[in-house]
Amino acid sequence: MTRFNPSIAFSAANGNGNYVPKPAPSTPCQQRFLYTSVWTAAHDQVFLDCLWDLAMAGKLEEGGVIPPEALKRATEQTNLIMKESFTCSQNRHRVEKLRDRYEIFRYLLSCPEVISDRWDNTIIAPSDFWERVTKTYPLAAYEHYGDPNWSALLAIFGPSNPSVHASSSSSYEGNDNEVEKIERPDRIVEIDGVLQIPSDSA
């Protein structure tokens, strides 16, 4: 069986099963919305890896709830590896951006216009779909490439992933009052069996 190639898209219009080249992306690249000069792709990867390790160790609560001690640990590890001094408050916002990224990609996978490649988590859709969805949700800019960290995001934020176990209440009693429990908001709703993101949560 030939492996699905994300660089080409199936054209149902020609009716003969031929493949046609995927058109050039017309929307911005997602990295424009994810990274800055301070928080680079490398910082993002290290922080995500730290959260992934905590999820695999059962240190996160089900549904992507990050206990204070887990956030503190991920922050310390990221700072050590990247030689930075990010605070738990700053990284709490990073967690929310990662959560949005998870919700958006999950939403896109549910859209009937989208064809996904499970091998490398790339997704393709018509150009007008990308133009429409990225106007509302900039983080949906997956027209250029997919999300190579989807497995990690699913392990961290997935509502029923077996690797994420409910934990007891936090015993962390540090003085950093910025460290607080991060609850998972319900950003996605299901209407008539279709996952949707309310416009007021974008």
UniProtKB/TrEMBL annotation:
<feature type="region of interest" description="Disordered">
    <location>
        <begin position="164"/>
        <end position="183"/>
    </location>
</feature>
<dbReference type="InterPro" id="IPR024752">
    <property type="entry name" value="Myb/SANT-like_dom"/>
</dbReference>
<dbReference type="Pfam" id="PF12776">
    <property type="entry name" value="Myb_DNA-bind_3"/>
</dbReference>
<feature type="domain" description="Myb/SANT-like">
    <location>
        <begin position="39"/>
        <end position="132"/>
    </location>
</feature>
<protein>
    <recommendedName>
        <fullName>Myb/SANT-like domain-containing protein</fullName>
    </recommendedName>
</protein>
<dbReference type="InterPro" id="IPR045026">
    <property type="entry name" value="LIMYB"/>
</dbReference>
